[in-house]
Amino acid sequence: MTSTAPASIETFTGTCPRCDAELYTNYGEPQCLPCGYVDYRAAREDPESSDARPMRLAYRCRYVGLTPALKDRTMSYHYGGPEGVALIPACPWCLTDMTPVSLTGMRKSTRDLRFVCPVDHRITVLGAKGAVEGWR
Questions:
Q1: Alpha carbons 75 and 66: distance in angstroms, whole number
Q2: Is the full-model pTM beyond 0.90?
Q3: CB contact at 8 A, 32 and 40
Q4: Domain boundaries in the chain?
Q5: N or C: which end of the chain has fewer CB within 10 A?
Q6: 3 state SS of 89
């Protein structure tokens, strides 16, 4: 059985001319997350030609752990669930939605949330007072 990653709002569109980081398209213009560059020359997609699915608002946060190889990796997340208040991150490696798991065997901090994807990638989301600070 094969599974494919769901289509994301944000799609990779090239590299930034300022800092050579990846550009992501969200709401029509490709933008660079590290330096803030936005390419306004890109053609906007006609909203009438897109599919009728409602778009979910996606956010991105940076890796804040100790591994140097992951320092430039970002994770996107959105809020969903029955009342739209549950945090649903996308796996930074396979881009599928992750599900929450418990912190068994560990001292549970009120600000740490642990998630796992269907491929068994695991992350911890760090936050304070309802805001996401980063992931590790």
A1: 16
A2: no
A3: no
A4: 8-51, 56-136
A5: N
A6: strand
